[in-house]
Amino acid sequence: MRRKLNKFAVSTDEEGMSIVELLGAITILGIVLPLFVGYIILNSKMIEANTIQTEAIAIREDIREWMSYRAQSQDIYELNPYVMTTTGHRPGPVYPEKGIEKVRAKHLILDKSGIMKDAQGNSMFGEQIPSDIIVVGKEISSESRNRRQVLDYDYEQKGVTLKTSVLSDVKPYVGQYVGLGYDKLAINYAVLVEADPKEFETNANTSDNSVSGILVTIKVYNGITGAELTNTQFHWNADY
Fold first, then answer.
1. Residue 195 in contact with residue 82, Cβ under 8 Å?
2. Which of 42, 124, 134, 172 yields a CA-CA distance of 20 to 30 A from 114?
3. DSSP SS3 for 72
4. DSSP category for residue 15
């Protein structure tokens, strides 16, 4: 007599896998696959974050090195005579007490695109575009003086948007990094260069103080999120 199948018996497919096993495999796959995809996404974000941080540090050091080189000429001084007068070249530096003068005295600009002008087109704080005329009167090109651009303060005119976490009143002093290989960087970077008087010793010689420079802080920001990525401080003096 033919043996009858129990009505509760589990059917199997042609490969011999039961429906329960198949459902179990699908469930496991449904759990593992999202975890695997999440790991890939997280790993990608970590790599991107490390790349951005590494680039920010390189930018910081490039600007610092550039400033050290430019300190051998009047290039930066001519762009910041107001700052250097009120902070760096007197034994008792005095900040303006209020207004745009106070903000200006606390920041350096590193390119002529950062010069603010009045309604008549004159620089508001006495900034001058560094000359390409050498001592003997011969005109030379910017390239021959290695006057490469590191910051661009006119970035909005070129369609670049930088989101920074700095206050709106210092926006004119926030520049886009356009230094070495900037077009190959992961993102656009925003840079702010602050200036403060150097702390003078009360018993120091006045003549020494007069050339002791200023305390410079370079801050590099993520141009997309506005987060500060890195900063550095050093004492700097324009040896012109």
1. no
2. 134
3. coil
4. T
Helices vs strands, H then E, count in the chain: 5, 5
Structure tokens, 98: 């209020």
DSSP state letter for 237: -
pLDDT of residue 210: 44
Encoded amino acid at 69, one letter: Y
Closest CA to 236 of 209, 216, 211, 208: 216
Q: What are phi and psi of 11, to 5 degrees?
A: -75, 155
Question: Can you tell me the distance from the alpha carbon of 63 to that of 102, in angstroms, rounded to the nearest whole number?
Answer: 24
Res. 84: pLDDT tops 70: yes
pLDDT at 63 over 90: yes
Q: What Rg do the C-alpha atoms of the chain give, in angstroms?
A: 30
Alpha carbon 228 to its chain's center: 8
Q: Is the pLDDT of residue 189 over 90?
A: yes
Is residue 124's pLDDT more than 70? yes
Q: Are 215 and 198 in contact (CB under 8 A)?
A: yes
CA atoms within 13 A on the CB side of 88: 25
Residue 77 and residue 67: Cα distance in Å, rounded? 11
Q: What is the distance between the alpha carbons of residues 146 and 188, in angstroms, rounded to a whole number?
A: 23
CA–CA gap between residue 190 and residue 193 (Å, rounded): 10
CA distance 195 to 109: 10
What tokens appear for 113 in the block?
């695109």
Q: Report how far residue 190's alpha carbon sits from residue 163's, in angstroms, rounded to the nearest whole number.
A: 8
Give CA–CA dist 160/126, Å, rounded. 28
